[in-house]
Design goal:
Translation Initiation Factor IF3, four-stranded mixed sheet, alpha+beta, 112 residues
Length: 112
């Protein structure tokens, strides 16, 4: 026994369901926050709160500490500043990757 129906209606419904599934599985954006060695405590706290909001929304966050001029010579101070900034983030996160380049420190964070 075969069911009679409208092929156009069937294809429309099928496409509509696929579009709905695609819209639910939309990839999250990669947000980027840049900090500096010369940044004050309050500015770092504000940016850490912004990162917490991004993580709560499910976005990945790239944190970048750019080094300019003579800042490149003191990498240990830059690493300490970077780690200090990461401790200010209140939302639990995991580091997907961390890279140390000659002119910057990068870390990509995602929600735990």
């Amino acid at each position: 026994m075969a069911r009679l129906g409208d092929l156009g209606k069937y294809l429309y419904e099928k496409e509509k369901k696929e579009r709905e599934i695609r819209s639910r599985n939309k990839p999250k954006e990669l947000k980027e926050i840049q900090i500096s060695i010369r940044e004050g405590k309050h500015d770092m706290e504000r940016k850490a709160n912004q990162i917490s909001e991004f993580l709560k929304a499910g976005h990945q966050v790239q944190v970048r500490l750019a080094l300019r001029g003579r800042e490149r010579q003191n990498k240990e101070f830059a690493k300490n500043k970077f780690n200090e900034f990461l401790t200010l983030i209140q939302e639990p996160f995991k580091e997907d990757s961390r890279r140390i380049l000659p002119s910057m420190l990068l870390a990509i964070l995602t929600k735990k």
